Amino acid sequence: MSSTNDDDAWRAIVENYGERAAIDPADDPAGAAAAEEPAPVWSSWDSGDAGGSGEIVDVPDRDLPDLDLPDPEDRFVPPTPPPLPRPPRDRLLAWVGLFGSPLVLLVCLLLGIDLPPIIGYALVGGFVGGFLYLVFRMPREPGDPFDDGARL
After folding, report:
1. pLDDT tens for each residue of 67-108
2. DSSP assignment of 45-109, as one string?
3. Rounded to an integer, what distance in angstroms lies between the CA atom of residue 94 and that of residue 130?
4. Is the dihedral of CA 100, 106, 110, 116 positive or negative?
5. Beta strands of 13-150 (E only): which ranges?
6. Whole-prediction pTM value?
7. Neighbouring-strand partners of residue 124
8. Quick one: angle between helices 89-111 and 117-136, nearest 10?
9. CA 62/CA 7 separation, integer angstroms
10. 48 close to 54: Cβ distance less than 8 angstroms
């Protein structure tokens, strides 16, 4: 099926869809402007480069409404956030063991670096030890038992 047959089929569907309202041109202020024939406009989609026919297409010329843009000085500027908290040294060491040990092992594996077995065991032990330390240091009960987590 060619492009013109598709266009004709769609045009027929649109023209026969539902009842059209009759508008008196005297009552419609935009009726006079709509009655004028819009000037043909060249579209880049219709060029031969895009696989189109290279024909001039009628595109209605629409005026864009005036946009009421706010002043740049009236925009919201959030306050500076507080600095990130620093964990105690024991927890920082546990986090380094938890994430640093697998990272070192992965880099050595990807680069083909052979580690002595004692260093490999120490890295695995650092991972397991860091995980266990962080789990055992977790609080056992919630800070506020009546807190449902909602924040306003």
Report:
1. 676 676 777 788 999 999 999 999 999 999 999 999 999 999
2. GGSGGGTS----EE----PPPPP-PPPGGGS--PPPPPPPPPPPHHHHHHHHHHHHHHHHHHHHH
3. 4
4. positive
5. 40-41, 57-58
6. 0.45
7. none
8. 140
9. 23
10. yes
